[in-house]
Specification:
porphyrin biosynthesis; 4pyrrol_syn_uPrphyn_synt_sf; five-stranded mixed beta sheet; five-stranded parallel beta sheet; 250 residues
Amino acid sequence: MLALRNKHILLTREEKDARQFAELITAYGGTPYFLPLIKIVFRPVGAEASKKAARADWLVFTSVNGVRSFFSAYQGGPLKAKIAAVGIQTAQEIEQYHYHVSVVPKVQDGEALARMLRTVVGERERVLVVRGQLARPTIIHALEEKSIKVETLTTYDTIMPEEAVEEAKALPNLVFDYVTLTSPSTATHLRTIMETCPIFYRKIACIGPRTNARAIQLGLTPTVTADTYSTDGLVKAMLIEEAHKHERNV
């Protein structure tokens, strides 16, 4: 059954990361449109990355982009530290560099990862948290409360693409059934875009509660939210919403 047939769905993450998401929407009969509202800019942190990683007992990655930016800059030898990842997708990205991931929470969430790390990291071990400039300090604070030595390494910045407004103006003139948001940053940038280029929609589909909270804070409603914090979860949330609409119309 093509549950998203005739549904127009706007994708706001970087297009190269949204392709698989678009394929899944198409498989359910929907029509995806691309409006990238975030751009990831890697920082040149090669020497700093090598120095900090060499003295770490644990490396903690809080996003797929953290993995990509870290390994694009890292210039040291094989990593000896144990590795933790915030979720399955981040762990899979690490494994592409042939490293084993020791800790992955079932729920892709910084607080869940922090709780797991507090049970496995020794008091004398050093932790290096690899992250973007917008990451919350949840993991850092949770470990420091146990007097664990924590360092941070900011390897990338999340910004709004300069061409986003022009690309928004070039979108087809229609009401999108869903605008998908995959991070609080996409919500912030969507609101910024809409100040100069109105985008009409019926629902905002959020990847998780933090993104949903940011969307509501910005007045981007009504919303649906994924139970599992992934693009697969987003599709599932839209399918459930469509099923509920069908039930209401029966």
